[in-house]
Amino acid sequence: MGSLDPPKAESNYSNAAGKSDAIHKSTGDDGDPPVHKEMTMEYDSLKKRKTSMLPLEVGTNVMCRWRDNKYHPVKVIERRKLPYTAPNDYEYYVHYTEFNRRLDEWVKLEQLDLDSVQAVVDEKVEDKVTSLKMTRHQKRKIDETHIEGGHEELDAASLREHEEFTKVKNIATIELGRYEIETWYFSPFPPEYNDCLKLYFCEFCLNFMKRKEQLQRHMRKCDLKHPPGDEIYRSGTLSMFEVDGKKNKVYGQNLCYLAKLFLDHKTLYYDVDLFLFYVLCECDDRGCHMVGYFSKEKHSEESYNLACILTLPPYQRKGYGKFLIAFSYELSKKEGKVGTPERPLSDLGLLSYRGYWTRVLLDILKKHKANISIKELSDMTAIKADDILTTLQGLELIQYRKGQHVICADPKVLDRHLKAAGRGGLEVDVSKLIWTPYKEQG
Ligand SMILES: [Zn+2]
């Protein structure tokens, strides 16, 4: 799972997400009647009926006017009463069912089209199905309990998953180094941070504080100027640090809290011992500033070479996401293993991976005039054969002949796909990577 460089089409959303407040004001108070409103003789009784459905229940499906001034289907996730107002004056936290959850937001009643209200569906059934589809954690649980035997545990897990999935964003912004960053998702900070809308992070040790003065005091005595761990790569101003979650438990946990603010599905918070964190930094005379990271299990039976991946929003769209992916495969090559990212991948993560796989595989296919097998491609790239197959199938470069998958690639078709995939940007210079694969000490 991961959050990487957003594609162009999406960028309008995520950029605009930061301005939701201003948009609230401009769309909430202009008094435009909802477009579906029927001006009939029964208007009064209609009005009465609408009033009787207020406040809307959590779980209600309704149309909501978004910042594009169009109506989109939403589901009410949470509601809260506005202070000093009439009894039915509530704000609603909604999820736009067509959009990514990072766009979930508080909206005013005026934005909702009450004519479109649908009855609350049976949440339990629906959400169980969704959560079964959504997470690897769940799949693992099902495998372990063989479904028939383990209903109880499954229900508890579904419930937890559901709670997680419907969480309202808690921290709105963070300060990290030179940046103030708007967050995207809920993150389970300890209860004493429940009343905070903003958190102040030390950009080096990732300790977080409630108040600016606390951070300033901390910065005077914090002696870290880079992530705790070994610098395993340096090229120009870019450095990669390998942090062992067991040796740097607090750092690992802080990183997970921070990352969750920008990752929708992420289940790892406390068991950081089993992971290595690869933290990418831009370095200058003030220190090494984290731009993103990926985590990796020390031992993965499923040949995962990456667990979570994130480029922090201020550094997105600069090629760092692709750099991190490429880096994870360079580590796999050094280990002499093939690797694959842990699922589910986020929407942005999947896009970045598809782009990476397409570029790497098609470059090789071009050089070898497609005269190469999937196994050979996998050996050369450390990309798992399944991922190669799905990528090439998606590009319609695979045919099934006499019980075998055969790569069929017209050079013109390759060029067209390569052009569409764009360039990788930042390359990993393997000669600058000084690293030996992880081995348990002792
Ligand atoms: Zn610090």
TrEMBL record:
<comment type="similarity">
    <text>Belongs to the MYST (SAS/MOZ) family.</text>
</comment>
<keyword id="KW-0862">Zinc</keyword>
<dbReference type="GO" id="GO:0006281">
    <property type="term" value="P:DNA repair"/>
</dbReference>
<dbReference type="InterPro" id="IPR036388">
    <property type="entry name" value="WH-like_DNA-bd_sf"/>
</dbReference>
<dbReference type="Pfam" id="PF11717">
    <property type="entry name" value="Tudor-knot"/>
</dbReference>
<dbReference type="GO" id="GO:0000785">
    <property type="term" value="C:chromatin"/>
</dbReference>
<dbReference type="InterPro" id="IPR000953">
    <property type="entry name" value="Chromo/chromo_shadow_dom"/>
</dbReference>
<feature type="region of interest" description="Disordered">
    <location>
        <begin position="1"/>
        <end position="37"/>
    </location>
</feature>
<dbReference type="GO" id="GO:0010224">
    <property type="term" value="P:response to UV-B"/>
</dbReference>
<dbReference type="GO" id="GO:0006357">
    <property type="term" value="P:regulation of transcription by RNA polymerase II"/>
</dbReference>
<keyword id="KW-0808">Transferase</keyword>
<keyword id="KW-0007">Acetylation</keyword>
<dbReference type="InterPro" id="IPR050603">
    <property type="entry name" value="MYST_HAT"/>
</dbReference>
<keyword id="KW-0804">Transcription</keyword>
<dbReference type="GO" id="GO:0005634">
    <property type="term" value="C:nucleus"/>
</dbReference>
<dbReference type="GO" id="GO:0003682">
    <property type="term" value="F:chromatin binding"/>
</dbReference>
<dbReference type="GO" id="GO:0003712">
    <property type="term" value="F:transcription coregulator activity"/>
</dbReference>
<dbReference type="InterPro" id="IPR016181">
    <property type="entry name" value="Acyl_CoA_acyltransferase"/>
</dbReference>
<dbReference type="InterPro" id="IPR025995">
    <property type="entry name" value="Tudor-knot"/>
</dbReference>
<keyword id="KW-0805">Transcription regulation</keyword>
<keyword id="KW-0479">Metal-binding</keyword>
<keyword id="KW-0863">Zinc-finger</keyword>
<dbReference type="Pfam" id="PF01853">
    <property type="entry name" value="MOZ_SAS"/>
</dbReference>
<keyword id="KW-0012">Acyltransferase</keyword>
<dbReference type="GO" id="GO:0008270">
    <property type="term" value="F:zinc ion binding"/>
</dbReference>
<dbReference type="InterPro" id="IPR002717">
    <property type="entry name" value="HAT_MYST-type"/>
</dbReference>
<keyword id="KW-0010">Activator</keyword>
<dbReference type="InterPro" id="IPR040706">
    <property type="entry name" value="Zf-MYST"/>
</dbReference>
<keyword id="KW-0539">Nucleus</keyword>
<feature type="compositionally biased region" description="Basic and acidic residues">
    <location>
        <begin position="21"/>
        <end position="37"/>
    </location>
</feature>
<keyword id="KW-0156">Chromatin regulator</keyword>
<dbReference type="InterPro" id="IPR016197">
    <property type="entry name" value="Chromo-like_dom_sf"/>
</dbReference>
<dbReference type="Pfam" id="PF17772">
    <property type="entry name" value="zf-MYST"/>
</dbReference>
<feature type="active site" description="Proton donor/acceptor">
    <location>
        <position position="342"/>
    </location>
</feature>
<protein>
    <recommendedName>
        <fullName>Histone acetyltransferase</fullName>
        <ecNumber>2.3.1.48</ecNumber>
    </recommendedName>
</protein>
<dbReference type="GO" id="GO:0004402">
    <property type="term" value="F:histone acetyltransferase activity"/>
</dbReference>
<feature type="domain" description="MYST-type HAT">
    <location>
        <begin position="166"/>
        <end position="437"/>
    </location>
</feature>
